[in-house]
Design brief:
Shape: rod-shaped
Protein name: Colicin import membrane protein
Number of helices: 8
Keywords: Coiled coil, Membrane, Transmembrane, Transmembrane helix
Transmembrane segments: 21-47
Helix content: over 70%
Organism: Paenibacillus wenxiniae
Number of strands: 0
Coiled coil: 69-96
């Protein structure tokens, strides 16, 4: 089915982005090792001790840290591209699967309903005639017209077997249709339940995005403070603020890695449901 096929070009692009992301992370490792040492030093060093460091040493550390930040920002850009591509793919796939679930059994149920309607039309004259005879018999009995009662009973009894057969056939068809509808409702709900983890993961992603927003605000404030320190010629303060920038970017990278992992889980969940036999074989 066309609607179940994932966009191969987007998938290949996502794979390419993943390769680029891996390469960028690899090239970042050396810079991170140096930067971690700086971050640890600043973390455990009191502020007044950091301020006592020489400007030349601070400037040297700023250069190394700035290179790490630049590399980390490139990684974040690649992560963002990969997440957006996978999310777009997941949203399209989820919509397609949900539509297939909605349409599940519709053709079969419509056929059963049409068959029942045809039988109702076919048997309607007989059923109506039988009902009319019952009313006529009741009226004749009220009028104490025994001759007419016997004549009407004879006619009703003559068609009674046909009436019972027609009524039974209609009852069976109605029962079958009701059972099919109930079974379809259950099947649809079971499939929707299989997609429930997608909503749970989406909530986790929303929460993680809020954490990213908070970290980004801290990063932006630290970046402004860094530039202010640079304008003041205070290398030690600039290094402290730049370290905060680096830490926040590291947190953002971790959060985006979590989001990427959850989007991959969403993708796997959707594919699992899409490959279910009832959705693969149903032609509704």
């Amino acid at each position: 089915m066309d609607e179940t096929k994932f966009n191969k070009s987007k998938f290949n692009k996502a794979k390419s982005d993943k390769v680029h992301l891996t390469a960028a992370i690899g090239s970042l490792h050396k810079l991170i090792l140096t930067s971690v040492c700086i971050v640890m030093l600043l973390t455990y060093m009191p502020l007044h001790s950091a301020q006592a460091a020489s400007s030349n040493s601070a400037i040297s550390n700023i250069d190394t840290l700035y290179d790490s930040i630049t590399a980390l920002e490139r990684v974040l850009e690649l992560q963002n591209v990969q997440i957006r591509a996978l999310r777009e793919q997941n949203n399209a796939a989820l919509k397609a699967v949900q539509e297939r679930i909605r349409k599940l059994d519709t053709t079969r149920l419509a056929t059963m309903k049409a068959t029942l309607k045809q039988l109702e039309n076919q048997h309607a004259p007989l059923l109506q005639h039988y009902a009319d005879l019952g009313k006529q018999i009741a009226n004749a009995r009220k009028q104490k017209n025994d001759r007419l009662v016997q004549s009407l009973l004879l006619e009703r009894n003559r068609i009674q077997a046909q009436f019972v057969a027609a009524r039974t056939e209609l009852q069976n068809k109605r029962t079958e249709l009701a059972a099919a509808r109930q079974a379809s409702t259950v099947r649809k709900q079971q499939l929707r339940n299989l997609l429930q983890p997608v909503q749970t993961l989406k909530k986790q992603i929303t929460s993680e995005n809020k954490a990213i927003t908070s970290a980004w605000k801290v990063r932006t404030a630290a970046r402004k403070s860094y530039h202010a320190a640079v304008r003041q010629g205070n290398a030690v303060a600039a290094l402290v603020h730049l370290t905060v920038v680096y830490k926040q970017l590291g947190q953002i990278q971790t959060s985006r890695q979590n989001i990427l992992h959850w989007e991959q889980q969403i993708n796997k969940t959707i594919q699992t449901v899409a490959s279910r036999a009832e959705l693969m074989t149903d032609q509704s």
